[in-house]
Amino acid sequence: MFNKEVRNAARMFAGTVLSVVGVVGLVLPLIPGIPFLIAAAACFNAIES
Questions:
Q1: For residues 5, 9, 12 and 18, what is the CA-based torsion angle, rounded to 10 degrees?
Q2: For the chain, how long is the longest CA-to-CA vector?
Q3: Sign of the CA dihedral 26, 32, 34, 38?
Q4: What is the pTM of this model?
Q5: What does each C-alpha distance from 47 to 5, 7, 9, 21, 26 come to in angstroms?
Q6: Residues 6+ apart with CB under 8 A from 35
Q7: At what angle do helices 34-45 and 4-27 cross, to 10 degrees?
Q8: Per DSSP, which regions of the chain are E strands?
Q9: d(Cα 34, Cα 43) in Å, to the nearest integer?
Q10: How many Å apart are CA 14 and CA 32, to the nearest integer?
Q11: How far apart, in whole angstroms, are the C-alpha atoms of residue 39 and residue 22?
Q12: Residues 33 and 12 sit within 8 Å (Cβ to Cβ)
């Protein structure tokens, strides 16, 4: 399968995108921000060292 570096890079990318969408969601009333920030925290938590 994928090695650890590729999985960590994908999780970092997904966490960054979800963080940006979450912050935008906190400012704009169209989308909720909290679920995206929780998902981003889960992505960042799953990064292996």
A1: -140
A2: 40
A3: negative
A4: 0.87
A5: 10, 8, 9, 20, 25
A6: 22
A7: 160
A8: none
A9: 14
A10: 17
A11: 9
A12: no
